[in-house]
Design goal:
This protein starts with 6 loop residues before the first helix and ends with a helix. It has 261 residues and is an alpha+beta fold. 36% of the residues are buried. α1 runs antiparallel to α2.
Length: 261
C-alpha cells in the first residue's frame, strides 16, 4: 500500500531547503567580501569628534564609567583593540613604526588615564614638528598586527590639543593608509586650538590585513606647530546572525500562513 506524502513533512523539507540555501548565500557573500577586501584598499572616512574634552571622555578614555559618545564596540572605553598614549606603552593590535620627536610632559600638559586600566593617571607626552610649518606632516606611523575583516569597522581616534597652549595645536589632523591607495581622511575644519584636549575619529572599512600601515598626518596650526598625544583603535563587529534570524523568522511566518490557507 502506498502512503501519500504528508503535507506537514513536505513543508519541513521545503523549510530545510530554504534554510540551507539562505545559509549558503550568506556564507558566499562573506567569502566574496573577504576576497574583495584583499584585492582592494580600505576606505577611510571622517567619523566624528569629541571637542574640548566633553564630559571628560578624552582624558578618561580608559574609564568605563565615563560615557564615550564615539565608542563603537559597546564597552565604553576607547582603545579596546589597541593604541598608544605617547610616553606610555604601545599595546594591543597597534605596532609602533616611527614618529616625530616626542617631548614632555611639561607643566600644564593634560592629565589622562594611564594605558593600563586601574593605574594612576599620567601627564601626556607629545609628538611635535618643532614649529616647522607644513601640510600633511607625517606625525606617526603605525601598523596593525591583527587583521580586521571586511564586514568589521576599524575606528581610529586621534587625541590632540592637550598641551599648555593652543598655539601648539595642529590646524588639522588626519589618517592615511600606506601602500593601499585607501585615500586621505582629514579633518576639514580647523582643530579647536585652546589647550583643551580633543579627539577626532576616522572609520576604516573594507577590511585591513595584518601588517598594513597607517600614518597620522597633520597641517601646522597658527603657531606653525603640529602635535598629537593619543591614538586609539576600536573595532565594531556586526551581528550577521541577527539578520539571518530575521530572515528565517520571515520564512517561518510565510510557511505558517501557507499551511493555514
Amino acid at each position: 500500500m502506498n502512503i501519500p506524502p504528508q503535507p506537514h513533512n513536505n513543508m519541513i523539507k521545503t523549510f530545510k531547503t530554504i534554510v540551507m540555501k539562505s545559509l549558503t548565500t550568506i556564507t558566499s557573500m562573506l567569502c566574496l567580501s573577504a576576497i574583495l577586501s584583499s584585492a582592494e584598499a580600505a576606505t577611510i572616512v571622517t567619523a566624528t569628534s569629541v571637542v574640548d574634552n566633553s564630559g571628560n571622555e578624552v582624558t578618561e578614555w580608559r574609564t568605563a564609567s565615563t560615557t564615550k559618545s564615539a565608542d563603537i564596540d559597546g564597552d565604553n572605553i576607547y582603545g579596546t583593540f589597541g593604541g598608544i598614549a605617547f610616553g606610555d606603552i604601545v599595546y594591543g593590535a597597534m605596532t609602533f613604526i616611527s614618529a616625530q620627536k616626542q617631548v614632555g610632559p611639561f607643566a600644564g600638559y593634560a592629565t589622562i588615564d594611564d594605558v593600563t586600566i586601574g593605574d594612576p593617571d599620567r601627564q601626556v607626552r607629545t609628538t611635535t614638528n618643532e614649529g616647522a610649518a607644513g601640510t600633511d606632516i607625517v606625525m606617526y606611523t603605525f601598523g596593525l598586527n591583527t587583521s580586521v575583516e571586511a564586514w568589521e569597522t576599524l575606528r581610529v581616534g586621534i587625541g590632540t590639543d592637550g598641551l599648555n597652549s593652543g598655539v601648539f595645536a595642529p590646524g588639522s589632523i588626519g589618517l592615511v593608509e600606506l601602500g593601499g591607495g585607501g585615500g586621505l581622511a582629514e579633518v576639514a575644519a580647523t582643530v579647536n586650538a585652546n589647550a583643551t584636549m580633543d579627539m577626532y575619529f576616522f572609520d576604516v572599512t573594507g577590511g585591513v590585513a595584518a601588517g598594513t600601515q597607517f600614518q597620522v598626518i597633520a597641517d601646522s596650526g597658527t603657531g606653525n606647530y603640529a602635535t598629537h598625544q593619543l591614538v586609539t583603535l576600536d573595532v565594531a563587529v556586526p551581528e550577521p546572525s541577527s539578520a539571518a534570524l530575521l530572515g528565517l523568522g520571515g520564512l517561518a511566518l510565510m510557511l505558517r500562513r501557507k499551511r493555514s490557507a
